[in-house]
Amino acid sequence: MILVMVLVAFGLITLYSTSAWNGQVKFKDPAYYFKKQFFATLLGLAAMLFISRMDYHIFEKYAVWAYVLSLILSGLVLLVGDSYNGSKRWLSLGPLSFQPAEFAKLAVILFLSKVISSQKQKRKGGILSLVRVMLLILPIVGLVGTNNLSTAIIILGIGVILVFVSHPRYLPFLGLGGIGVAFIAVFLGMESYRLERLAIWRDPESYEKGFQTIQGLYAIGSGGLFGKGLGESIQKLGFVPEAQNDMIFSIICEELGLAGAAALILIFLVLIWRFMVISTHAPDLFGALAAAGIMGHIAIQVILNVAVVTNTIPNTGITLPFISYGGTSVLFLLSEMGLAMSIARKSSLGTPDRSGKIG
Q1: Over the stretch 292-303, which tens digit does the pLDDT of each residue have?
Q2: Closest by alpha carbon to 321, among 235, 226, 242, 249?
Q3: What is the separation, in whole angstroms, between the first and last Cα of the chain?
Q4: What is the mean pLDDT of the chain?
Q5: 254-to-239, 304, 358 alpha-carbon distances in Å
Q6: Alpha-carbon dihedral of residues 329, 332, 334, 337, nearest 10 degrees?
Q7: Residue 357 pLDDT > 60, yes or no?
Q8: Is the pLDDT at 122 greater than 70, yes or no?
């Protein structure tokens, strides 16, 4: 709880600092992005506290339906979805809009945890069974990957991690890794702009679209050891486009320096470690896999975002959990935190119940 609240507070503060200029220029309100994120955060915190007090086995019962719903919503995006900056990723419900891909991450975690735990109970834990498990999520990977390759990679990564932690042998995963790389290669070749991103990554100065990457690196380099100070970034003044989204880590580096960026990464590392502890102490396999899936989700997304911002890998449009602007993202992330807390309460890490016994 403490780690999550620290990340939420840090995210809101840095979001306001990063987005104030964009908000003033576009909407005549420097707090425009902050207010929307704050509202979504309040909803997310309420969901987190509510879910944390529930028995997480309830989600096991409805895991398959959650996965089916994610397929339906992802399909609707392709048919009637809203586009923003050339990407069709949103569904609108009156004045509200949300990204079904964010819900799909949580749905896949619950769905795979249920399927794998059911197979283990029936003593069907062979590598072929686990391959079939991976095939089950290919429909959602394909639907999401049509317009959002980065989220498709995250979902695929979550699947690989859950299969990996549920199987005692390591060698078969080399083959699964090769299949995953081939699958991603096919997606890269389906759209020319994805191949263009590879070229931009290799030589951003030779392409106009490499502007964002270069300006982000300028922000990181100019921050030095301790940064220019909170709110003192120059690159957020239009040089880094939409700085409050995927590239917010570069502004953190500029304003808080290497020390601030390292502190943020350390908090994420401790949070990931806590998920591992919760997973190993979970009272049953479903709880252990669900906690491991949440751990994998956060770890993959943090690693990929930092790698993109530092131009270690090609730009894939991945947000930084709890920090980047995105109401749907923070709502479902906090819901996942509530699920992890619910598992912890039922494990040997839990607090005493009314009878005085550990849950």
Answers
A1: 999 999 999 999
A2: 249
A3: 18
A4: 86
A5: 13, 19, 46
A6: -130
A7: no
A8: no
Position 349 pLDDT exceeds 70: no
CA distance 117 to 127: 14
Whole-angstrom Cα distance, residue 293 to residue 47? 19
Q: Which residue has the higher pLDDT, 146 or 41?
A: 41
DSSP string, 4-37: HHHHHHHHHHHHHHHHHHHHHHHHS-TTHHHHHH
* Residue 333: both structure tokens together: 């992330």
Cβ atoms of residues 105 and 155 within 8 Å: yes
Q: Which run of H or E residues covers position 207?
A: none
Would you say 286 and 113 are in contact if contact means Cβ atoms under 8 Å apart? Answer: yes
What's the Cα-to-Cα distance from 278 to each of 1, 120, 337, 345, rounded to whole Å? 13, 20, 12, 9
Least Cα distance to 158 among 198, 112, 120, 195 occurs for 112
Predicted confidence (pLDDT) at residue 47 exceeds the cutoff of 50: yes
Among 148, 118, 152, CA closest to 132: 118
The answer for residues whose C-beta is within 8 angstroms of residue 5's C-beta and 6 or more apart is: none
Range 234-254 average pLDDT: 91
Tracing tokens 């290497």 back to the chain, one arrives at 258
Q: What is the pLDDT of residue 297?
A: 95
Please check the confidence at residue 86 and state whether its pLDDT lies above 80: no
User: What is the average per-residue pLDDT within 202-221?
Assistant: 85
Rounded to whole angstroms, the Cα distance separating 297 from 316 reads 16
Identity of the amino acid at 3? L
From the list 10, 11, 30, 8, the residue with the least C-alpha distance to 20 is 30
The span from the CA of 318 to the CA of 6, in Å, is 21
